[in-house]
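Researcher: Can you fold this with magnesium ion in place?
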Amino acid sequence: MKDPTTRKPVLQIDNLGKYFPVTRGIFRREVARVQAVDNLFLKLYPGETLGIVGESGCGKSTLARLIVRLLDPSRGKVNIELDDPRLHHLRDNRTGLIDITKIPRKSLLEYRAKVQMVFQDPYMSLNPRMRVGTAIREVMEVQKNVEPSKRNARVAELLTDVGLRADMADRYPHEFSGGQRQRVSIARALAAEPSILVADEPVSALDVSVQAQVVQMLLEIQSKYRLSMIFISHDLSVVKYVSDRVAVMYLGEVVECGKTDEIFNSPRHPYTEALMRSVPRLGVAANEIDVISGEIPSNISPPPGCKFNPRCKYRQNICSTKVPHNVDDGDGNLSRCHFTNELKLDGIL
Ligand SMILES: Nc1ncnc2c1ncn2[C@@H]1O[C@H](COP(=O)(O)OP(=O)(O)OP(=O)(O)O)[C@@H](O)[C@H]1O
Ligand SMILES: [Mg+2]
């Protein structure tokens, strides 16, 4: 058994919030705010894959964009371990981590190298007019992390790593299948030598038949390059397959985080139980699937107390008045429910 105190996260998110203004009229007066991410706590440990699940609109992509700093947070901190000497002066003396909002714009290049993102649609991240070899080499030119004379060899190695052939470097993105294009964009992300990979629905746009191959390849490169990975997906079976731990999001918050088998087999939060049991699965007739009752509340005015309380079948009075605590077990695992220690919830074995 690991001693929790010796395990240091590579990413620690504290009380993160991202609010988007809702405006009206020609003067774009702010009339409300969408709380896309709110009161969110999360830890990612070295070399692990952390799956993130939750219904559409719960804030998964917003969280991913905050981590790679495509968005700036409205509140809270995203702290990251970065071993890049160019950023050492920004480290917190106590934790050794860097709050990414403190990284000045001119140093964002170094930051972005270490925390790379893979998007759902590989077309978006590849320039259609650039040969893929050139696109991968461009990253090394910008980052200056590989000597010029070694860049072509590195391109060839990266293409092989992601399951393509070295001679494919001369092709253009449209000459690849969807799955191959996603492999190219992963090779391009790797060219920057990241320590953290944030994959937002990386296989959701692909044919089911190639999803498994791309997922398998991701796991192989993760172990080869010792990456810590955040894997976002609405497909619970993929998440179950790839993740060491899983974080369950609801209305912008992480409501439960735990080891994958515990999340699936013995959830501790009523929303996790409801989410698991709402998914069609083998051996369970369609009429036995439990649809989560009630509508997802608006993230403009979420319910007070526990945000899940209006839909929760275990609700008690305290649930609509008091926000559940946010204490993890020292290993990043938590369940934000007032009754987490009393409930006996069902998983999907
Ligand atoms: N730029 C933006 N401006 C305004 N609202 C936004 C913006 N980006 C996201 N939102 C809102 O924030 C909420 C969370 O969106 P997000 O895309 O993070 O959800 P998601 O969990 O990734 O959903 P999906 O599973 O459908 O991809 C949604 O209500 C969305 O409409
Ligand atoms: Mg999304």
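Model: Folded with magnesium ion in place. The chain is about 25% helix and 20% strand.
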